[in-house]
Amino acid sequence: MGTVDEFLQDDLDDEKTIEFIKNYLPQDLKDRFSDDELYYFLDVIDEYYVESGILDAQPDEDGYIDIDLEKIVDYIIKEARKDEMGEFDPEELLFVVQGEMEYTDSLGDGE
Q1: What is the pTM of this model?
Q2: How many CB atoms neighbour CB 76 within 10 A?
Q3: By the 8 A CB rule, do 76 and 45 touch?
Q4: Which of 4, 24, 76, 108 could link 99 by a cystine bridge, Cβ 3.0 to 4.6 Å?
């Protein structure tokens, strides 16, 4: 179990990710998803990374790991149905997944 500080840091990281995604979304989608839905999507994306083995994948010669964004979108749709979160448009969800990836990439730019 993590410490309170780790929990608060994770919560702050999620808040920053959500804000980034909101700014990343096209204008016509900015009000499409609630904060609760975006937090849910983040949790499911993290779950996908763990269950798919992506976190254990070896990078290619350029240091990249191939991640199929459409598979992540499909996983979110499947889980959202199972969890009775509703039906979501794959094309709209793709922007959320891309926004999460862009945010993660932006964290690595400063290193």
Answers
A1: 0.82
A2: 24
A3: yes
A4: 24
